[in-house]
Fold tRNA pseudouridine(27/28) synthase.
Amino acid sequence: MDTIVGRLAKSRLPKRKMALVLGYLGTGYQGIQYNPPAHTIDSELFKALVATNCISQSNSDDFSKSSFSRATRTDKDVHALTNLVALKMQRYEVPQQVKAELNEILPDDIRIWDVVPVKKKFNARVMAGTRHYRYVIPTFLLQCGPHSDLSTSQLARFKNIWNMFLGTHNYYNFTPRRKDTNADSPQNMRHMYSIQVSDPFTIAGSTQWLSIAIHGQSFLLHQIRKMVHYALSEYHRSSSDTKSMELLETVDPDLTSATALDTPTEQYIPLAPAAGLYLHHPTFEGYNNQPAARRLQVLDLSGYPACATFEDRIHTEIARSEHVFHEYMAVIRQ
């Protein structure tokens, strides 16, 4: 064997496929996906992985060398309570030590919740089953202004409107147009398992908010933000209040009363602010039923104790963003 090749072979450390469960505040990041020179979650994560010798420097500029995959891609300024990435790591014997060292190096707005062994051919995107998202909105979007209380009947009406999205529907009007996709394409079909609207709660002791929990099989680009705006439009359209009808005309004058779901007719639906959206957690039911998962560790991303405090941080960041940028107020243009 050539001596140089031999030395390289000896220097290579054994690797194992591991999953990192992480949460992050998306503010200030150009999404999660590695896209140099953009500042992304992946770029910060890989710097920390190199610094802790979890991957080699030579593998840091090409994700394919580490068989890298992620459960869910999030866009610019979108937060995640729990997401999951998987890659081959050369440090894996003491996962909790790796977790502690990564958290020491990573910025405070990116946290590692767990380091978990997975099977050799595990692909996070393929193995992820469904996704749970949250969208948080201030109640003044339903009250026609920031200085009135949300009534029980108003809340019930808003909750009921979300039932229209349950089941399987065509979301052609809820994502940017693509030249290669027709209105009746199967790619536009998405299934929503459940949608729950919370009761009002306060963030940082000030404005009242609602949390919309959306559990779906998968989602199109901008789908949830358009669903939120459409639901708000339907809410005000169904109101007999004069102020609410005036608000409807201000919010989206081009949106007709006919449903935008399951129709080939193009309708323009504006985007609700990105700041209110965050990934709550993906699920891995199919993988967890495999013998390999039961032998190693099942992936349940819904129950990490530290996430409760981090979710409060996400809510606080959403409220802070509204205070600074007034994105929600721009929706009603008051």
